[in-house]
Amino acid sequence: MPGITIGDTLLDLEFQTTHGKIRLYDYIGDQGWVILFSHPGDFTPVCTTELGMMAAYADKFAAMGVNLLGLSCDDVNSHQEWIKDIETYNGHKVTYPIIADPNRELIKQLNMVDPDQKDPAGNQVPSRALHIIGPDKKIKLSFLYPASTGRNIDEVVRVIEALQIAAKYRVATPANWKPGEAVVISPRVSKEEADQMFKQGYETVPLPSGEEYLRLVKV
Questions:
Q1: Which residues contact 88 (CB under 8 A, 6 or more apart)?
Q2: Are 69 and 36 in contact (CB under 8 A)?
Q3: 139/120 Cα distance (integer angstroms)
Q4: CA distance 65 to 63
Q5: How far is CA 192 from CA 185, 198, 206, 215, in A?
Q6: What are the φ and ψ backbone dihedral angles of 166, each rounded to 5 degrees?
Q7: Read out DSSP for 6-65?
Q8: Which ranges carry the Thioredoxin domain (predicted)?
Q9: Using an 8 Å Cβ cutoff, are 184 and 173 in contact?
Q10: Are 61 and 35 in contact (CB under 8 A)?
Q11: How far apart are CA 25 and CA 162, in angstroms?
Q12: How far apart are the first and last CA of the chain?
């Protein structure tokens, strides 16, 4: 599955994790979402802050129907020891599983290899990749960060909310959108359909072209 990207369906992979063996489809469930995120290595500074923040946000993600799933090429014993450092640093329990991929099979399958970074033995390591997987087992969104740049978990929350709103309604989120703000009605929705779907009313922005494609609505 090299080069997987948005819209691709993931295979029902089985992982060895800090919570034992997990099958991906079972972990997603029928209506769930999963954030699958990789980190370059255990016992490293940026990764410790990132996984700590994921732990801090775990309840918020759970309330959104989202499960967390970490991944690196370290083994389970390493993960278990490192979790103690994460919890001490951040003050939150790491309740989500972390996948062990010492043979580097999964990071290749999941397109999570950092092309520029190697471990001390010269082996490939994961990038700071993050895939958001929907209930249909398809990748809905992917982030790819270099090792030097930690991820913004507030942005992960924001895009999850945007994806879930888009999945529920025939809408999209505009630039710099924040939860609670107006969204835009899909151009594929006719005026007649929009009138039926959004009985609370919506705003059609007047534009020089005269085209009525920019329609804002609160949902």
A1: none
A2: yes
A3: 32
A4: 5
A5: 12, 10, 18, 13
A6: -65, -35
A7: TTPBPP--EEEEBTEEEEHHHHHTTT-EEEEEE-S-SS-HHHHHHHHHHHHTHHHHHHTT
A8: 4-165
A9: yes
A10: yes
A11: 23
A12: 37
Identify the structural domains of the chain with CATH numbers, from first to last: 14-151 (3.40.30.10), 169-217 (3.30.1020.10)
Q: In the numeric block, which tokens belong to residue 59?
A: 């309840």
Token output for 199? 């009985």
Residue 109 banded pLDDT, cuts 50, 70, 90:
confident
Q: Beta 66-72 vs 98-100: how paired, if at all?
A: parallel
Distance, CA of 102 to CA of 72 (rounded, Å): 8
Residues annotated as catalytic (active site), given as ranges = 47
**pLDDT one-digit tens code per residue, 37-88:** 999 999 999 999 999 999 999 999 999 999 999 999 999 999 999 999 999 9
Per the structure block, which two tokens stand in for 139?
């990748």
Cα separation, 17 vs 36, whole angstroms: 13
pLDDT band at 203 (very low <50, low <70, confident <90, very high): very high
